[in-house]
Design brief:
With 426 residues, the chain is mainly beta. The protein is built from 5 helices and 22 strands. It is 8% helix and 46% strand. The protein has a 12-stranded antiparallel beta barrel. A 7-stranded antiparallel β-sheet has the order 1-2-7-5-4-8-9, with no helix packed on it. Strands 3-6 form a two-stranded antiparallel ribbon. The radius of gyration is 28 Å and the shape is elongated.
């Protein structure tokens, strides 16, 4: 009986639209249309995936709007009630129209409006004019702000304006001598977002708009050792300026400059007694450094060139120069890392990509790392597994060979380490 139930559950799962997704885009009334107290708004239901999808509206479609007097709630009705449930075939768009059930307050200026269930982007359009027979009440400042506030963004949406990807985010597992995993988390935070007119705000504001704080953490996890310890972790906060050069008209190339400072540490401190390495991930019989503490500081400057055509094919080349300081715990690290890093990446913006990271110097040592990634929904093997297509992200094959995969073993060579994993941000 249990076997039959499991079979039915698996059969049901395989019939589900695995990676289907419906994106919502709210559109304001056409520009130049007469302002109304109950304007008709257009909602686009977009399905960019390879799977058919369906979207169902809740019985109560709620929204909010803001004008000079503050924030207000209102409810919406479908213009065509038969669209309460909408089928959205793959790679198509369906249009739904909605009308507010309550009036939008007349006034001057603009109104900002969004749906809350389902949640959509905010739109802005002119407020309906006040009746000629009634005087327009003076605008009331939004409570606590002392000024009109049309911003409907939430804390999370405001955070997204400032936070973006920095280095890849992934989790990968492999085995060479021992079963191990490597994972990385990374982001950068733009300190000030002046908006599209940042070049008109003066040199100080313009410079602050180029200032970023970044944080990257990379860990190697020993999955075979006693208590499954983290073999080593690297913590890398950085502060830098990043500037995208003006795009040349009709050119398919973009150029970006970046420069700043980075601190890297494995978060360890310790004694001054040398000890031979134990049965860890890296097998070596020579004496280790007096402690497991590792840290270094780097000034860096990088230039990136990116080519992308209308077919979303792209190629990216980044060259970075490094200058080390305060490297007492590993004074010979330049012998193994060198003073230059080369990053190459190419493929399709939404498809298969191959990246390479090389560092070192010809007369010394170095390392090379390759990552081959592709969307999980584009893998026939993964799509055949129940619900796996809804996983999102990118399937990953990672290869590393060379010195310094972890900061602890910056002077130890790791040969032919292959891992399979899931990459969330490329």
């Amino acid at each position: 009986m249990k076997l039959a139930s499991r079979f039915r559950l698996a059969l049901l799962a395989t019939t589900l639209p695995l990676a289907a997704r419906v994106d919502l885009l709210l559109v304001p009334p056409p520009e130049g249309a007469p302002a109304e107290t109950r304007p008709v708004l257009t909602l686009h239901l977009n399905n960019p995936t390879e799977f058919d999808a369906a979207f169902r509206f809740e019985p109560d479609i709620e929204g909010e709007y803001a004008d000079a007097a503050g924030h207000h709630r209102l409810h919406f009705a479908l213009v065509d009630e038969s669209q309460r449930r909408v089928d959205v075939p793959r790679r198509t768009r369906v249009i739904v129209r909605l009308r507010p059930e309550e009036n939008i307050r007349p006034g001057e200026g603009f109104v900002s409006l969004r749906l809350l269930s389902p949640r959509t982007n905010p739109v802005m359009f002119p407020a309906p004019p006040a009746p000629a027979v009634a005087p327009t009440p003076p605008p009331v400042a939004a409570r606590g702000l002392r000024r009109p506030n049309l911003d409907l963004t939430t804390d999370v949406e405001e955070m997204r304006r400032h936070i973006s990807g920095h280095e890849p985010i992934y989790f990968a597992v492999g085995s060479r001598d021992r079963l191990n995993a490597r994972f990385q988390f990374s982001f950068k935070y733009r300190v000030l977002d002046p908006g599209p007119n940042e070049s008109e705000l003066g040199p100080v504001t313009d410079a602050l708009g180029m200032l970023y704080f970044a944080y990257t953490q990379t860990s190697i996890w020993d999955l075979d050792g006693f208590s499954r310890p983290f073999y080593d972790s690297s913590y890398r906060p950085a502060l830098f300026l990043q500037h995208a050069l003006p795009r040349i008209k009709d050119s398919e190339w973009n150029f970006t400059l970046r420069g700043g400072a980075q601190h890297e540490s494995n978060g360890k401190g310790g004694g001054a007694v040398a000890a031979t390495s134990g049965p860890g991930l890296i097998a070596t019989n020579r004496l280790r450094h007096p402690s497991d503490s590792r840290s270094l500081n780097t000034f860096f400057a990088a230039a990136t060139a990116r080519w992308e055509d209308v077919g979303a094919r792209f190629m990216e080349v980044s060259l970075q120069a490094n200058a080390y300081f305060h490297i007492d715990e590993n004074p010979d690290i330049a012998t193994y890392r060198g003073h230059a890093e080369l990053r190459l990446r190419g493929g399709y913006a939404r498809g298969l990509q191959l990246s390479a990271h090389l560092r070192g110097r010809p007369a010394g040592h170095g390392s090379v790392e390759f990552n081959l990634t592709w969307p999980t929904s584009e893998s026939p093997l993964l799509r055949a597994l129940p619900l796996i297509g809804s996983l999102g992200g990118y399937a990953q094959i990672q290869y590393f060979n060379g010195y310094g995969e972890s900061l602890l073993d910056y002077d130890v060579r790791r040969r032919d380490q292959l891992r399979l994993g899931l990459m969330i941000v490329r």
